[in-house]
What we know:
The complex is a heterodimer of chains A (314) and B (279).
Chain A: E1 2-3, E2 9-20, E3 23-34, E4 37-41, H1 48-55, E5 63-68, E6 71-72, H2 77-83, E7 84-87, H3 99-109, H4 114-127, H5 143-155, E8 161-165, H6 173-188, E9 193-198, H7 201-207, E10 210-215, E11 218-224, H8 225-229, E12 233-241, H9 248-256, E13 260-263, E14 268-274, H10 279-288, E15 292-299, H11 303-311
Parallel strand pairs in A: 1-3, 4-9, 4-10, 7-8, 8-9
Antiparallel strand pairs in A: 2-3, 2-5, 5-6, 10-11, 12-14, 12-15, 13-14
Helix pairs in contact in A: 3-4, 3-5, 4-5
Chain B: H1 21-34, H2 37-46, H3 48-62, H4 73-82, H5 84-95, H6 97-104, H7 107-111, H8 118-136, H9 138-152, H10 156-160, H11 164-187, H12 193-218, H13 228-239, H14 250-271
Helix pairs in contact in B: 1-8, 2-5, 3-9, 5-8, 5-11, 5-12, 6-12, 8-11, 9-11, 11-12, 11-13, 11-14, 13-14
Amino acid sequence: MAETGSVAPVVTLDTVTVMYGRNAALRDVTAAFAGGAVGLLGPNGAGKSTMIKSLLGFVAPDRGQMRVLGLDVARSPLEIRARVGYMPETDGHIPGMNAVSFVAYCGELAGLPRVDAMQRAHEVLFYVGLGEARYRNVETYSTGMKQRIKLAQALVHDPDLLFLDEPTNGMDPKGRDEMLDLVRDLAHNKGVNLILSSHLLPDVEYTCDDVVVMHKGRIATAGPIDALKQPRGRVYELRVKTPSGEIEPFIELLRARGLECHATDEDVMRVFVPGDGGARDLFALAAAERVQVRHLRPSVPTLEDVFANAVGEQ
Amino acid sequence: MPIHDQGYRRYGGDKAPRGQAWMVIARNGIRHMLGKRAFLGLLLLSWFPFFVRAVQIYAAANLPQAAFLAPTPETFRQFLDQQQIFVFFVTVYVGAGLIANDRRANALQIYLSKPLTRSEYVFGKLAILMTFLLIVTWLPAIVLLIVQLAFAGNFTFLRNNIFLFPAITVFAFIQVTLVATAMLALSSLSNSSRYVGILYSAVIFFTQAIYGVLFAVTRSTSFSWISFPANLAQIGDVIFRLPPKYETPWLVSLLVIAGVIAASGLVLERRVRGVEIVT
């Protein structure tokens, strides 16, 4: 079972399969999401949004069982939705409302008394940075503001677990940083468990402690980010010049010798050297092939390396 | 350390028991519509026939030379018939955007991520439209009955026509339920309220036109079951103990109405979902 962290899981999936017609969006997924901040990482079409929609009860799985906060998704969807907040990937709002009415309305729908819902709507809007714009009609908001208000409506009823589906989509760099700071603050200072679905590695690396990597409807790898990044060898940035001018044969040779290698720039590659040999092995291979090493710099393993390894990206 | 941190705080208060979200939806929708001046104007206009009828009842009760205006059970049936034009406008004005606007704004995923069922959502939306339609039909008809009692100063009319209160109530509710469910189903089919309004008008007028053509060809009213308004009229006549206008058996008209309501329910069941899956 793919498992994150050592804390009791807030979400578990047991051999879950979701089919859209003949296409499997999730294939026998078995995973456990720990409390705190967990990133759900994967390229577009990996099945991240489908997993979240299944956990919310929007999509019924063809096979398998899911539990959220200890409750069975098939049997207690309403109890679960009362305790979770969902920030959808696509724009979504109630037409014809200003921000404070919209968020308060969402609070009331989640069961808050009217007065409390209104009070929390104001608080949450200030928290997400929309305090000054809270009386504006949501339809006049910019993309970044719409992202923030989606977060506000997901937070207003004080959920125990937040599902954030691509929360930084369409945001400018400053807005993106602010959104990530909010997400990080929620998880690390406010005690809200969250699952952040994203295809952006830096977003997950900045905000989350654990990660579940998905690829083609399956779990590729899962665990605490720090543990996954622990080197079981060494990573180098490498630039070479070959006698023929082609570097592909050299890359193939490295791979044939068990070194993981993927290009990061035009002529720079990241090479993972397992074992203790390190740079010495690289120099020896280069010398044997009469390849000049023009640049060699030790590097720190990143989540990108974990992701590339997990999904087998070349 | 700040005196008051204006950040995110956990909520420690109570939450309402589940099953009340439809009331939140209905209350919000009603408040939203009442905030529109044009709609308030339409509502006021829809009560104009009531005032005319009230004057008629007053005159019949107080002026001997106007005794021929005295109300009969048919008066109330005619009144509800007259209100149909307002039923149409209110249905289009209120109902066309009820789900279509939510679909346009991707609001269904927001609604259904909260602790409410799809049925609660639909019921909340239905309640908005039904409330306004009852304000246009049932409420003025019942108030008219009370006005009759007040001006007559006795219960004779009511005693002689004891079926009137249930008749008004049953007919108004059948009419309102039919119209509201049909409009809500149409509203769930599109993202454009304008298109839904046109579609609804087309359904009403097209079915009536087809019946008109068939009547012109066959000179028989036995095809009245094709027409939306004709089915309602047929049921209305039976409920008010009046001779039916059409040859279609009232049971057939009732079945058609029940079929339309059931079909609307089916459409809503398929269209109101948190996520739309295209395979």
